[in-house]
Amino acid sequence: MEEFPKKELEALWAPWRVEYFEKEPRNRNFLTEAARANDDATHFVIARRKTAFLMMNRYPYAVGHLMAVPYRKTAELSLLGENEIVELWNLVTHAQALLRAATKAQGFNIGLNLGECAGAGVPDHLHVHIVPRWSGDTNFMPIISGTRTISEGLRSLYEKLIDAQTKIEIGRSK
Fold first, then answer.
1. Is 43 one of the annotated active-site residues of the chain?
2. Residue 156: exposure state from Cβ atoms within 10 A (0-12, 13-18, ≥19)
3. 25-63: buried (b, 16+ CB within 10 Å) or exposed (e) per residue?
4. 52: closest CA among 111, 148, 126?
5. Cys-Cys crosslink for 34: which of 38, 43, 52, 53, Cβ 3.0 to 4.6 Å?
6. Global confidence as pTM
7. Neighbours of 140 (CB within 10 A)
8. Burial of residue 72, with CB atoms counted within 10 A of its CB: 0-12 exposed, 13-18 middle, 19 or more buried
């Protein structure tokens, strides 16, 4: 009797994933660097507002995982001003519109991980996660093999999101 999983299932061929782990160790200051950057495409910044910006997550939980980030580095929600809070949530709404247009997202998980014990990968610079979801998007991979599959590379998705944003802005100006 053959053991499960079969050898054919033990290897997952996903060459596009190299962009997620090629640059090791992870840069823990990437949010601050993205906040200050002039080259948005290099940092996967989608939109900028006065006190916050929207960017792609380089280590996504799912395709299209975005983050709304205040420019000001803080770990505490209570230290944000009202304008920063409003702008963060406006960017969350904008992210949903972009993801619906670019990836046909059907639902979203939205939240913050505040503190290391809560799962914050960057505990000293809070950010709101916007994770798109689709009916039936959960499968056996994380449960059986501890593997999450990401079906699209960051660069191609970035281009789709920028295109969706341009179309949304053109639609608003009409």
1. no
2. exposed
3. eeeeebbbebbebeebeebbbbbbbebbbbbbbbebebb
4. 126
5. 43
6. 0.77
7. 9
8. middle
Higher pLDDT, 82 or 29: 82
- Give the pLDDT confidence of 79-127 residue by residue, as tens digits: 999 999 999 999 999 999 999 999 999 999 999 999 989 888 888 999 9
Q: Region 53-59: what's the mean pLDDT?
A: 91
Out of 43, 65, 127, 129, pick the active-site residue.
127
Identify any residues that bridge with 55 across adjacent strands, giving them in sequence order: 45, 67
How far is it, in rounded angstroms, from Cα 52 to Cα 83? 9
Report whether 56 contacts 46 (CB < 8 A): yes
Tokens of 24: 């090791």
The b-or-e profile of 108-118 (16+ CB within 10 A means b, else e) is beeebbeeeee
What residues form DSSP beta bridges with 58? none
